[in-house]
């Protein structure tokens, strides 16, 4: 193969079993989904709704399949492409790769083709099931199959080019992934808001101007051309097949142009991105330090709270404060204090994400910068290192906490004492969720080999544990509600007051939230203890120290045996009685240290 980067990347990806396990898991999930849909079609063991036909069952399966296919494609492409160049940067091999005969164009082309082949190898798993169900129920034709493959390929090409460009620009894989997913989320939210809210509102404003209204409707329809599900869905109605062929050209050309532009841009800036860290080190050596002096009491926490740019955090905090105020204003308008629960849940998910990203890269980032060994050589204990890392990750995003907590506590005070009490309960639970996610991020960062794996492990372990505990609390709440609901209903009917039922529900909710917060606090301490244990046993006093010590003891024992043999040989040569050789005792680490 002429491109050595492509050959090496394909060879390395073929040796990893993770790709095969992903394909197996995706195929197993599609088989289960097909079996559930088949049970509706066969009317056993689950009976379909009245009037449900086999054609409708097949259409439902095809819709679910298309939605999840393109959703997984959108998530998988950045996950595969964002580490193409950042992994070389983290390993320190990008500069060495630039010194070879392979040009930047060859490096970018090799990385791009290899990652694209891996993504399409994962996505091609669902093609047989798609063709089987569609052809059997006469829902698709060969044009639909070609459109499905073409759309998947061009979307992967466009997202891959953008992800590769971010991988060239970013210093770590997790930073590139966060940027990509953030941009995709913003584009999706703005598109949905414009189509469902912006277009109807603007039409009501400019209803007296028909040309403007037609342009707004046309712009809304143009957004649908980039929705692959809306493009492939008309193929189930044969008269609309020709419309699908006409609307397929615009998204394919757009995605291909995006991927081509960003790929060319990546090749143009690759050499500069590879030499930028070296130039930055030379500039720092020549100019000297510019930062404030390091505090002597908490240097690890100070290191985590450093920022290069402050204004993006303040802008994001201002946006969060405005959104929180509007959401709580809607709660006041509805006069329902239980609407505070989804607001705090969404806030916990949004605020914990930057904390997760910072905490999950707290130790892996030190390893990538080759500064972790220096930190381990300091007199700080392992527990102190872990706690300071967690504290720094939390203090770094203090503006976000303040921006949400102030309106979240002031606005419910208008609704009364119960709303304030429930808001304080949600504040306790919200704080424990963020606290636990920061602890989990530091723990996963301790044993992970890269920042990207640490982020994935943190999200999986953190939210998985929280959902498990929340499920247990929900089941307990359901059991208590089933047990006490007859008693509460009798009391309400006897007294004629509905406040008793609401107060009882509030007390049960506060008790469950406090228990959940306590469990999260204990789990956070356990995560910190596990991180400290890993650092002490594997990093500071771990396997390398044990192997070195045992090797040194073996060498000392061998030298002692040789000296005894030489002494006995000299004594026998001089005709003196040789001293009995004593078996050398195994030295202990304490003895060797003394």
Please tally the β strands and state the result.
Answer: 0
Oligomer: single chain
SSE string? HHHHHHHHHHHHHHHHHHHHHHHH
The secondary-structure class comes to: mainly alpha
The radius of gyration computed from the alpha-carbon positions, rounded to a whole number of angstroms, is 31 Å
Total tally of structural domains: 2
Percent of residues in beta strands?
Answer: under 5%
End-to-end gap: 59 Å
Structural shape: globular
Structure description:
- With 594 residues, this protein is mostly helical.
- The protein folds into 2 domains: 8-275, no CATH class; 311-545, no CATH class.
- It has helices spanning 4-15, 18-42, 54-81, 86-91, 94-98, 104-123, 127-136, 142-169, 173-205, 210-224, 228-232, 241-287, 299-304, 311-334, 340-360, 364-368, 372-376, 382-395, 398-410, 417-447, 451-495, 499-540, 543-573, 589-593.
- The chain is globular and about 120 Å long.
- Residues 280-290 and 581-594 have low confidence and may be disordered.
Short description:
The chain is mostly helical. It is built from 24 helices and no strands.
Describe this protein with a few key phrases:
disordered C terminus, mainly alpha, 594 residues, 80% helix, 2 domains
Question: Layout of helices and strands, plus pairs?
Answer:
Elements: H1 4-15, H2 18-42, H3 54-81, H4 86-91, H5 94-98, H6 104-123, H7 127-136, H8 142-169, H9 173-205, H10 210-224, H11 228-232, H12 241-287, H13 299-304, H14 311-334, H15 340-360, H16 364-368, H17 372-376, H18 382-395, H19 398-410, H20 417-447, H21 451-495, H22 499-540, H23 543-573, H24 589-593
Helix pairs in contact: 1-6, 2-3, 2-6, 3-6, 3-8, 6-8, 6-12, 8-9, 8-12, 9-10, 14-19, 15-18, 15-20, 18-20, 18-22, 20-21, 20-22, 21-22
